[in-house]
Automatic annotation (TrEMBL):
Catalysis performed (reactions): 2 5-aminolevulinate = porphobilinogen + 2 H2O + H(+)
InterPro entries: ALAD (IPR001731), ALAD_AS (IPR030656), Aldolase_TIM (IPR013785)
Enzyme kind, highest EC tier: lyase
Organism annotation: Melghirimyces profundicolus
Quaternary structure annotation from Swiss-Prot or TrEMBL: Homooctamer.
Key word Lyase present: yes
Binding site for 5-aminolevulinate 2: S273, Y312
GO molecular-function terms, A-Z: porphobilinogen synthase activity; zinc ion binding
Keywords linked to the UniProt accession: Heme biosynthesis, Lyase, Magnesium, Metal-binding, Porphyrin biosynthesis, Zinc
Protein name, per record: Delta-aminolevulinic acid dehydratase
Pathway it works in: Porphyrin-containing compound metabolism; protoporphyrin-IX biosynthesis; coproporphyrinogen-III from 5-aminolevulinate: step 1/4
């Protein structure tokens, strides 16, 4: 008989499979998104995201304590403000919801790595990620407000600034203002490649951030494009980003891989709300094995080239990883 390869030799037992495993998922890879809302006594599940809650600041500690206990090292904070206006001024208020949340979380857990999402859509009454003039999202005017927002977040104690607004030049603008304000050591995780994706639907429920008119396609990327993603990422690298993000994750694993291969910066993937909610919904119906599917997805994102994963599954996955050895 013709000689053939026996690939199954290295699959015969759990021991050898673990020894030859090429990629690993660990709680250290996770960045867990947390939503802080104004008011008190609030711990409210987001209807389209089972297992994800809004917390007012007086309830937030319980959530963050749990994250820390599970061995997750980082959170990204999103603020859901009470008051919105045309230019998103509550985004950079010193006592804004996210600034207060950052201060509180850093006070309680100085070692927890706190990222701040820098965008305006939760804070503007029109729901766009930048400043609107005559029905258009104006780029350069938005940069000023975004940079101001980033500085206020750094001042509140954010360890890293994660701008998700997709205006051109946001890394330059934010880097400059951070440096001027004395935060040259605060890194920027750029949402370098962010697609205009329908997978953000549940997040917009959670963050009350749907655009009131139009959509985000003049600033977020066309899902059909891959080369453009590399141009976006190249600009951000040149502008001084410290890490790059690709978002969403699952439907864009080719982009994660290409960004990984082209650039040497750490790469993060955002396993977004719609991806999360699809898994949750199918699991609730008993159609899939949630634990197996989630761990497979997260492993897939690592295999595609992500160093870090922003995921709403982080707490569950951290629990499951504790007993899969
Ligand atoms: C804000 C922002 C969005 C997400 C993170 N930051 C939504 C958007 O662009 O509408 C999406 C996260 C998710 O879907 O989990 N610009």
């Amino acid at each position: 008989m013709k000689r053939f390869d026996r690939h199954r030799r290295l699959r015969q037992s759990g021991g050898i499979r673990r020894m030859v495993r090429e990629n690993h998922v660990s709680p250290v890879d996770f960045i867990y998104p947390v939503f802080a809302v104004e008011g008190s006594g609030i711990q409210e599940e987001v209807p389209s995201m089972p297992g994800v809650f809004h917390y007012s600041l007086d309830r937030l500690n319980e959530e963050v304590d749990e994250v820390v206990e599970l061995g997750i090292q980082s959170v990204i904070l999103f603020g859901v403000p009470e008051n919105k206006d045309a230019c998103g001024s509550s985004a950079h208020a010193e006592d804004g919801i996210v600034q207060r949340a950052i201060r509180q979380v850093k006070d309680r857990h100085p070692g927890l790595y706190v990222m701040a999402d820098t965008c305006l859509c939760q804070y503007t009454d029109h729901g766009h990620c930048g400043v609107v003039e005559n029905g258009e999202i104006v780029n350069d005017e938005s940069l000023r407000v975004l940079a101001q927002t980033a500085v206020s977040q750094a001042r509140a104690g954010a360890d890293m600034i994660a701008p998700s607004n997709m205006m051109d030049g946001f890394v330059t603008a934010i880097r400059e203002q951070l440096d001027d304000a004395g935060f040259e050591q605060t890194p920027i995780l750029s949402y370098a490649v962010k697609y205009a994706s329908a997978f953000y639907g549940p997040f917009r429920d959670a963050a009350h951030s749907s655009p009131r008119f139009g959509d985000r396609r003049t600033y977020q990327m066309d899902p059909a494009n891959a080369r453009e993603a590399l141009r976006e990422a190249a600009s951000d690298v040149e502008e001084g980003a410290d890490m790059l993000m690709v978002k969403p994750g699952m439907a864009y694993m080719d982009i994660i891989r290409r960004v990984r291969e082209r650039f040497d910066l750490p790469v993060a993937a955002y396993n977004v709300s719609g991806e999360y909610s699809m898994v949750k919904a199918a699991a609730q119906r008993g159609w899939i094995d949630e634990r197996a599917v989630v761990l497979e997805m997260l492993t897939g994102l690592k295999r595609a080239g992500a160093d870090l994963i922003l995921t709403y599954h982080a707490k569950d996955a951290a629990r499951w990883l504790m007993d899969t050895h």
